[in-house]
Write a structure and sequence with these properties.
The structure holds 2 protein chains of 2 kinds. Chain A is mainly α. Chain A has helices at 3-20, 25-39, 46-54, 57-75, 78-90, 94-112, 115-132, 137-152, 159-167, 176-201, 204-213, 224-238, 247-260, 268-299, 301-311, 314-329, 333-346, 353-365, 375-384, 390-393, 397-412, 414-421. The termini of chain A are far apart. Chain B has one domain (2-44). At the A-B interface, helix 2, helix 3, helix 4, helix 13 and helix 14 of A face helix 1 and helix 2 of B.
């Protein structure tokens, strides 16, 4: 079977599994990999399927341990305390309040690389604060959804970049600054664009007093897990060769253990189980992505897509990135990163790949709001009690278009941006 | 030393995934958990 037919088979099987059979995206990618191998006359190459999964095992361990850490600081009261302290400290000006709220919502997504973690933890925690500013439910939901999505692609963990990088053997190193510069300003500006008209009119003093009254415990010992994580992450970079690098999974494990000794008492096994349950669909996707990447390499499809992408005129390539990545993201952002992101970055091998991969992750992330799945918007709608999730998607159309245009400009000027920032 | 610690982390995560596999009601999510379990078990036993 020719490569073009294999691409058709691949897309058809994947879409059928997701949209018709309603299988989880991870399983759909695994089924697509198996179907691709059979169609290419390779039988069922178990060795390749299993080997592909190992490509993302290290990333998976980071996600598992980060999610458990998030559950620990949620249960021991640190997350609540952090929210209270920051809103009380910066909550007296509407702009500072909106900025801080955005950063807090982004935090779990940045640590775990999953926007669901943001929506379901800090999103839930801060929804009453946003609604307390007399914001309509759909605007509060839109702010939570957008900040969570920017959190998903913010450093230190950006799974979209990891997937794209894994496809071209590019290590996840040197992305922190550029990701920070792209995500934080865009997230804060989007929140201000959506929320400032309401925050300006709200009585923030009353709101801050109400948050300040919440009993979240006293004393700075509660911050110990967060301080430990920061030291273990920054130490090896600040003092290379002197400070041992425990790597991220062990860092999060040590942070979780520290969380047991401060704050409220809770069941660690229950917190760990909840964390694993929440992150399993994302890990499943990573395993599926690993299989698919291995199989498209084995069958020659990857080379075919790369050569085809290279032969496209530059403007057509940019248009296809701007349209297809967010559209495919409507099914799965991570799926879009693996199926389309990898071939796209192969077409830009001659330029700064750190900037290009960051831009592709920004564009792909906007697919989080594309129907039919629009997972982030759907969950955010549940959090704020909005019945129609499309009302949350509507105010996000303009900010998403701006993000896509910025992403395209970053790809066009990747080398100068790289020289300036990296 | 660090290899042993990481192997231990993999084992703990694998146990949690097995727990999740048996507590899931829907077969598709059980299959998803089983898929994730494969590399974890192979790495825990240092087979790959």
């Amino acid at each position: 079977m020719s490569e073009i037919m294999l691409v058709v088979v691949m897309l058809a099987v994947f879409l059928a599994c997701v949209l018709w059979l309603k299988l989880p995206v991870g399983l759909s990618l695994a089924a697509t990999s198996a179907a691709l191998a059979v169609a290419a006359g390779q039988g069922l190459p178990l060795r390749h399927l299993v080997e592909g999964m190992f490509g993302y095992l290290d990333v998976s361990l980071v996600l598992f341990t980060a999610m458990i850490f998030m559950k620990v600081i949620e249960r021991n009261g640190l997350l609540e305390r952090l929210t209270r302290d920051l809103t009380c400290r910066f909550g007296h000006s509407p702009l500072a309040m909106l900025t801080v709220l955005t950063l807090i919502i982004m935090f779990p997504g940045a640590i775990t690389g999953s926007c669901t973690a943001s929506v379901l933890s800090t999103g839930v925690l801060l929804a009453p604060v946003l609604l307390g500013m007399d914001m309509p439910r759909h605007i509060a939901g839109a702010i939570i959804a957008m900040a969570s999505v920017y959190g998903m692609i913010a450093p230190p963990v950006n799974i979209v970049v990891m997937i794209i990088g894994g496809g071209i053997d590019m290590p996840y190193v040197g992305f922190d600054l550029i990701l920070l510069l792209v995500t934080v300003p865009l997230a804060v500006l989007t929140t201000i664009f959506l929320g400032y008209p309401y925050a300006r009119r709200a009585n923030l003093a009353v709101l801050v007093d109400k948050i300040g009254d919440a009993d979240t415990g006293r004393g700075w010992a509660l911050y110990l897990p967060l301080v430990l994580i920061a030291v273990l992450m920054v130490g090896p970079k600040a003092l290379p060769g002197v400070f041992p690098d425990p790597r991220m999974p062990l860092t999060f494990v040590l942070g979780s253990i520290a969380g047991l000794f401060v704050g409220r008492k809770f069941s660690l096994s229950q917190a760990a189980r909840d964390g694993v349950r929440e992150i399993l669909p994302v890990i499943g996707i990573l395993m599926g992505v690993g299989m698919l990447l291995q199989l498209i390499t084995l069958t020659g499809v990857r080379g075919y897509i790369a050569v085809s992408s290279l032969s496209l005129p530059a403007y057509l390539l940019l248009v296809s990135i701007a349209v297809s990545l967010p559209l495919f993201g409507g099914i799965s952002v991570f799926g879009a990163a693996s199926v389309l992101g990898v071939p796209f970055i192969l077409a830009f091998l001659g330029q700064n790949l750190i900037v290009t991969a960051t831009a592709l992750s920004l564009i792909a992330a906007m697919g989080s709001f594309t129907p039919p799945v629009a997972l982030t918007a759907v969950i955010a709608a549940q959090v704020v009690g909005e019945e129609n999730y499309l009302r949350i998607v509507r105010p996000l159309i303009l900010p998403s278009l701006v993000a896509i245009i910025i992403g395209i400009l970053m790809i066009m000027y990747a080398n100068p941006i790289g020289k300036l920032v990296l | 030393m660090i290899t042993v610690v990481y192997r231990l982390i993999v084992v703990v995560v694998a146990v949690l995934v097995v727990w999740e596999l048996f507590s899931q009601k829907e077969i598709k999510w059980q299959a998803n958990a089983a898929l994730v379990l494969i590399p974890l078990v192979l790495r825990a036993f240092m087979l790959v």
